[in-house]
Amino acid sequence: MSAAERQARMVELMGVLAPDEGYTLCGLPGVKFMRANAVRPRGKALYEPCIVIVCQGHKRGYLGGEVFDYHAQQFLVLSVPLPFEGETVRASEAEPMLAISIPIDLQLAAELALAVDDAQSGLVAPAAPRGMMASKLDDALGDAVLRLLGALTSPVETRLLGPGILREILFRVLTGEQGGALRAGLAHQTQFAKVGKALRRIHADYHRPIDVPTLAREAGMSQAAFHASFKAVTQTSPMQYLKTTRLHKARLLMVQDGLTAATACGRVGYESSSQFSREFKRFFGRTPVEEAREMRSLLAQAPGGRAAPWVSAP
User: Fold this and answer.
1) Start and end of every HTH araC/xylS-type domain (predicted)?
2) Rounded-to-integer distance, Cα 80 and Cα 213, Å
């Protein structure tokens, strides 16, 4: 099957799996289909560690001073949970933007990365770790993604074949064009991995008091080294990252759980509702009520689906 034939089949399957605009969940936990029938302006996003494969259309991400374009037959990888800005560059009713988001199981990824590095020891030069990267979909990965989409049209195949195909997709990414950077980020002894541990701690305890000395101590680093390494990975400071995470979490609570702004602000660790409202509007450009209303129109989730806890996107 040629690349063009494979893409056409992907689009056909995505039309069945993602019939409605927004996000649609499926029978595999955390796997989501993304559909946009029109271009979407640049907006705030927070993604869990994941692989986003675009089957049709064009998306663009912004992190610090870098721009990441990922369009048909390309994919984006985030090896750590990152707040960034994203936009849908090309999409229409006739040719919607269609993509699938696959969560990265960090334990499985670390095991596969270790096995791959052991097998390639001395053959491949070590790569510098990166938190976000965009790459072309090669034939091996493209074929695996197509098989996953086909399996997801059947509940039985989803349950019996889906997990194995997800493992293969992760393997293909880890051994692909930028797999070395992802494997380096998963290596436990690196500064990057220590920052990743701190990020997971923030996402687990964002609603509790967290300070930089504690995060640095848990990472086994001095405060100065931790701050520098953290900014190198996330393009922001630890405290700014914590605040951003809390605001994204509050937005999700209002959109997915129907919480009021006053209740959501307390749930994410704010003691002052007025401070929360000010910082929320400064960050998202809209009041909590306005933003929640807008997001509800964009995040259409399938009945009975289990939402991923870290995802907040325009």
Assistant:
1) 196-294
2) 21
